[in-house]
């Protein structure tokens, strides 16, 4: 788990404040709870996740000695907050698996799609990407360059072609060419929220008509350095399209990795992958145990 520790170095730094409180001598009194609350909040857990933990510590340990037991309890609470019943990617039982990827421009969406395609290819999957962010010429070009590097197919058309039309072609290609996984890029920003919502919906509809059970995943890319704003973004996107999980990008450069707790708590969305660098190999499956261990050990 070396990469996880590396990727979490900055977040772990902020979490040091939580650990300091847990190592204090004395009783679990109001002053202790206030300080723990402050430090959890500072570590970007958000109000709800912070309040949940504080309430449980108060109930379980009021007036008891601060020590190993309290520390282990907090650690378990954090671990439980992240527990997911759907770790890893959900694959189609048969036929192509369709993974839609959404996220605002600049979040790291294109890079994350490339990293995911690369990872799947290394796992032996026949993978292709679909360039459905047709509103940005640069997005199509960038994805083309990545596909070349990875050595996977790309399904694309010109700029301003209907994204749903590209998605349609991509699904046809997936069936005809027998792709195991098709990763679909989508628009990152449009004139209005309604417009963006409609385009995402159209892609969703086309994909589900073409391939039963699709999309099998709708992953939302969030920039870890946005902290609590990433949570707000996730809430907005969830109104447009039902997401199944998060790719948390740029964790390596951020001290705000604690936002994963808030995302899970507020939206019930599991973090499926984390981005820990700019290279093709810098995407790792999220592991709640390793995440919490990296903060505590
Ligand atoms: P998009 O506009 O959402 O498609 O964003 P891009 O994929 O083009 O990424 C924006 C910038 O963030 C680029 O410079 C990427 O190299 C960088 N980036 C993306 N993911 C990561 C990551 O996990 N770690 C770091 N350090 N940089 C990243």
Automatic annotation (TrEMBL):
Q: Where in the cell is it found?
A: Cell membrane; Cytoplasm
Does the keyword field hold Cell cycle?
no
Give UniProt keywords alphabetically: Cell membrane, Cytoplasm, GTP-binding, Hydrolase, Membrane, Nucleotide-binding, Receptor
Spell out the SMART domains in the cross-references.
Answer: AAA (SM00382), SRP54 (SM00962), SRP54_N (SM00963)
What EC class does the entry list?
hydrolase
Q: Which PROSITE patterns match?
A: SRP54
GO MF term set: GTP binding; GTPase activity; signal recognition particle binding
Among its keywords, does the record have Hydrolase? yes
Q: Which parts of the sequence belong to the SRP54-type proteins GTP-binding domain?
A: 270-283
* UniProt: GTP binding residues: 103-110, 185-189, 249-252
Matching SUPFAM superfamilies: Domain of the SRP/SRP receptor G-proteins, P-loop containing nucleoside triphosphate hydrolases
Pfam families given for it?
Answer: SRP54 (PF00448), SRP54_N (PF02881)
**Enzyme Commission identifier(s):** 3.6.5.4
Quaternary state and interactors:
Part of the signal recognition particle protein translocation system, which is composed of SRP and FtsY.
| Function summary | Involved in targeting and insertion of nascent membrane proteins into the cytoplasmic membrane. Acts as a receptor for the complex formed by the signal recognition particle (SRP) and the ribosome-nascent chain (RNC).
Give the PANTHER family listed for this entry: SIGNAL RECOGNITION PARTICLE RECEPTOR SUBUNIT ALPHA (PTHR43134)
Q: Which family does it belong to?
A: Belongs to the GTP-binding SRP family. FtsY subfamily.
Name assigned to this protein = Signal recognition particle receptor FtsY
């Amino acid at each position: 788990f070396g990469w996880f520790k590396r990727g979490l170095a900055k977040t772990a730094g902020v979490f040091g404040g939580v650990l300091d409180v847990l190592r204090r001598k004395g009783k679990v009194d109001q002053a202790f709870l206030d300080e723990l609350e402050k430090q959890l909040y500072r570590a970007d857990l958000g109000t709800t996740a912070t309040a949940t933990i504080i309430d449980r510590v108060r109930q379980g340990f009021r007036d008891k000695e601060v020590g190993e037991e309290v520390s282990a309890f907090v650690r378990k609470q954090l671990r439980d907050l992240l527990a997911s019943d759907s770790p890893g990617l959900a694959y189609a039982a048969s036929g192509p698996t369709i993974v839609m990827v959404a996220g605002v421009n600049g979040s790291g969406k294109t890079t994350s799609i490339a990293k995911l395609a690369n990872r799947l290819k290394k796992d032996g999957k026949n993978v292709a990407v679909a360039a459905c962010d047709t509103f940005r010429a640069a997005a199509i070009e960038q994805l083309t360059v990545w596909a070349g590097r990875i050595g996977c197919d790309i399904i694309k058309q010109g700029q301003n072609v209907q994204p749903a039309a590209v998605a349609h072609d991509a699904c046809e290609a997936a069936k005809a060419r027998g792709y195991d996984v098709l990763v679909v890029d989508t628009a990152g920003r449009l004139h209005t929220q309604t417009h963006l919502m409609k385009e995402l919906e159209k892609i969703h509809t086309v994909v589900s008509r073409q391939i039963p059970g699709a999309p099998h995943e709708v992953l939302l890319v969030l920039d870890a350095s946005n902290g609590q704003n990433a949570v707000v973004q996730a809430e907005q996107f969830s109104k447009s399209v039902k997401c199944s999980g998060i790719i948390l990008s740029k964790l390596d450069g951020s001290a705000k990795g604690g936002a994963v707790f808030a995302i899970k708590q507020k939206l019930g969305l599991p973090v499926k992958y984390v981005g820990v660098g700019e290279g093709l190999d810098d995407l790792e499956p999220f592991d709640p145990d390793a995440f919490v261990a990296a903060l505590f050990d």
